[in-house]
Amino acid sequence: MSILNPDLVHALRGTAIESIHRGALAIVDGDGALVCAIGDTERPIFPRSAVKLLQALPLVAGGAADALALTDAELALACASHGGEPEHVATAAGMLAKAGLDAAALECGTHWPSHDGTLKAMARDGARPGALHNNCSGKHAGFVCVGCLMARAAGSEAADFVRGYVAPDHPVMREVGAALAAATDAYLDRAPVGTDGCSIPTYALPLRQLAQAFARVATGHGLSASHAAAARRLRGAIARSPFHVAGSGRFDTRVMQRLGERVCCKVGAEGVYCAALPEQGLGVAIKVDDGNNARAAEVVMAAVIEAVLPLDEDDAGFLRGLSDTRLFNWNGMLVGRLQASSALRTALAETLGPLRPA
Fold first, then answer.
1. What pTM was estimated for this model as a whole?
2. What is the predicted pLDDT for the residue at 357?
3. Alpha-carbon dihedral 215, 298, 109, 55, rounded to 10 degrees
């Protein structure tokens, strides 16, 4: 019997509820215990881009990051869903150049930048987008770097070796899948599988297991020594270069610019969010049923961070502005709010309140 997930977010027009966003979330500690479960945390969901940090573990653990002297910005971009801004594009190109390749090696596809200013500037200048503008180009550049190191070990030409790296049975993707399976304790051969927007396999996993993986990212518990070290390095790189993991005005960048290594969060398509909270040793996984990202999923993540982290007055005000957002029309008139439901705030307070210091 399926569980009807509860209201997590309300969109208000004036003072009346206009829309309701239902969903589920799981919070797990470093020992694998389920600290908070709201809604159905066992239904498999596709995490999409929310697990890019897990997919980047082989880049560091396998030695490619050191062999190619990748910077913090490049490692953050390997975990990113970036906006296609010029610095994002240049960083992805730089990663490929270090591997001796160029954008022709990328198999993520092409789309216009999601950053509005960049898109308009390109259109004005008559420029066309390429694979480097794809929001997943950093992740794919990381895959190419992994493949280039494998090619060296095999005595093969890098360009030949990496070709077709998005296929499930390619050595690069097998390594990426193994890292995901190890972090989540999932049997990927038994999981529902689909093809992600950037053409790599995506596996449907329960929120509880996704939250467990990010608790492991936060603590290192349950990971191999090499993957635990890789997770620490990637978290640090993201905290030092949060612009590269998302971009101007984006939730992930804004939160991590503000809170640093206290939060490592990552959005995924279709209303998914995951986060590692290292100070508390917790992992978080969220799914909004209707797939609403920029509205509902961000509100839920902000409410979770508010409930878990001890915050000073300024940081609390910043987070409250994200979990209880004012809505304006095109004339700048306040027309409503987008806010975490009272039921969500109550459930978080009841389950997470004891974890906060007195």
1. 0.95
2. 54
3. 0
